[in-house]
């Protein structure tokens, strides 16, 4: 479906991209009820429409953080010495300036960490104290979507700050453990 986004640009939207094609029996088995399925869809959409847009402005927030991010990328990638140096310095500079544009485009606060902290605490509040995951006793697709967005920051200052200044770490570690246990089984 064609639509106009917040910036006035025409985009193609897929109305059912968060809806799993399940028959009634499968849906009941997985979700238990329509509310759980609707909640999962809501938070998957939130991860795509809001949370993911907080990553670049946070990991490239300052020249120092941008350099550290690209240093990590170069270390983990397969770069030669010259290519690595060019990628690190040119990439960091470019992403630092791009992150400022993204901050403006997504109407983020002057201190973009505050938006990240608010988003994390909003997620933790939505999961609540009575269940370990949004999916109940095991992670659902919303848990995995949020975890996946946050996982890309691991090893960076933004991630350390997020763990230190919000209540998300216990949930994050539970998801990490659940994923590791699932991988061991399969």
What does this molecule look like?
- It is a single chain.
- With 186 residues, this protein is mainly α.
- Helices cover 65% and strands 3% of the residues.
- A two-stranded antiparallel sheet has the order 1-2.
- Helix 4 packs across helix 5.
- The longest helix has 25 residues.
Task: Jot down its keywords.
single chain; 186 residues; mainly alpha; two-stranded antiparallel ribbon; 2 strands; 65% helix; 3% strand
Strand content: under 5%
Shape: globular
Strand order of the largest sheet: 1-2
What is the number of strand segments? 2
Report on the biggest sheet: 2 strands, antiparallel
Summarize the structure.
Helices cover 65% and strands 3% of the residues. With 186 residues, it is mainly α. Helix 6 packs across helix 8 (157-165).
């Amino acid at each position: 479906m064609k639509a106009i986004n917040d910036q006035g640009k025409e985009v193609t939207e897929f109305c059912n991209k968060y809806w799993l094609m399940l028959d009634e029996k499968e849906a009941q088995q997985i979700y238990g009820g329509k509310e759980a399925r609707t909640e999962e869809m809501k938070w998957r959409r939130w991860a795509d429409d809001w949370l993911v847009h907080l990553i670049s402005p946070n990991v490239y927030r300052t020249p120092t953080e941008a350099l550290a991010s690209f240093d990590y990328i170069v270390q983990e990638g397969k770069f030669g010495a010259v290519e690595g140096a060019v990628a690190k310095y040119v990439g960091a500079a470019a992403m630092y300036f791009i992150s400022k544009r993204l901050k403006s485009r997504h109407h983020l606060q002057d201190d973009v960490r505050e938006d990240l902290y608010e988003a994390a605490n909003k997620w933790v509040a939505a999961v609540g104290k009575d269940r370990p995951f949004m999916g109940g006793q095991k992670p659902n697709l919303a848990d995995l979507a949020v975890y996946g967005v946050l996982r890309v920051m691991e090893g960076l200052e933004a991630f350390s700050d997020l763990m230190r200044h919000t209540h998300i770490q216990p949930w994050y570690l539970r998801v990490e453990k659940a994923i590791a246990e699932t991988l061991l089984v399969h």
